[in-house]
Amino acid sequence: MEHGGQVRLRTIAREWGRIGLVGFGGPPAHILLLRRLCVERRGWLDPAEFEDGIATTNLLPGPASTQLAIFTAWRLRGTPGALVGGLCFIAPGLVLILALSALFLAGHPPLWVLGAADGAGAAVPAVAVQAAAALVPGSLGRASAGAADGTDRVRGGRARWYGYALAGAGAALLTGPWLVLVVVATGLAEVAVRSRGRRTPRPGLPDATARDDAGAVGAAGDGSDADDAGGPPPGGGRRGTLPLLAAVPAVGGLGGLGALAWVAFKVGALSYGGGFVIIPLMRDDAVHRYHWMTDGQFLNAVALGQVTPGPVVHTVSAVGYAAAGTLGGLLAAAVAFGPSFLFVILGARHFGRLRADLRVQDFLTGAGPAVIGAIAGSALPLAASLAHGWQWGVLAAALAGLTVARRGAVGALLVAGALGVVAALAGLPVA
Description:
Blueprint (H helix, E strand, L loop, with lengths): L8 H14 L4 H15 L5 H11 L6 H41 L6 H35 L5 H24 L4 H21 L7 H18 L31 H14 L9 H11 L5 H13 L7 H33 L3 H6 L1 H27 L4 H15 L5 H17 L6
Family: Belongs to the chromate ion transporter (CHR) (TC 2.A.51) family.
Organism: Kitasatospora indigofera
GO cellular component, one term: plasma membrane
């Protein structure tokens, strides 16, 4: 510690800004860098406290790794530290994505830019498939964990998991902004099933024993059975809950900056996990409801959010730029990230009670597979928006690289963009 036991704000600004600048790769990279800084190199937090921070921020709506960055800075210097750390973590990626949006979403970009955009966009459906696949083991294990007291209950938990996932996929394909109703319904259904199971004693056991065992299962599920969308953190599986898309349909009558603020608010305050979890809803608003961008431009925005450092939720800034230029991008970022600061600054003292609530855990256990289904389902309309035959070859190559060779999403998008440049220079059609 510095300055009478406190970490200086300028130290927080420097270190969190560095992480925001070099944090390519999404939540896994952010968690690794924050752990190395706060636990291993500086010793500001002990390992258990850091892991608890990961688990708790995964319960909150909004981008989890951003909230972890805000929370760790809050632990060091309270509200001033949270504000400085969070802003410095977000700023580098925001500046970069706005600059790239100006280049890629311009009215008449150079030929090589068009090729790079079409190539990277072609790989986006493959990245969505990878994102969904990465969530399956932890989510399916979580569904079984709470039913570990009997084979029938394990089978029932798995059967519900598949049903929830299919419902989410269907909702992503068919319902647009009403997807939230399906996700919320699956969460509430799981709460009802598990609550009834806790009230019903198992054969040969008194009521109290059944309740006690259920509580023990819930406590274990809180820590070790749910890997997040970002993949495992350093030193073990990332504890917490699966991402949950929790947004409501767009408010009728909004237009212009009001509509943009509403879309960004849904991303930041009413969605869990960020990244590809929010794509089905954002696509419907940005492309079909408000017509801020074409399908191809939306693919470009998603790719930009993946290849820039810092939070992948920066995608909403690219959407904001398409809607209203630089002002729109800044507004979208402010509205999307604002709730994360409020959740941590106002609620950090109560995080322990949130983690201990079994109903929260049950809800996320049911809603998680619906979200996975929605992410996987979003790959189909994204792929259908590809306009040129050569893009399907890039998509196939990206899918093989991500799922068979297990390459990272950032590298796959960069290679796909390079292939797009080659295609454009070779005279193949580009958008």
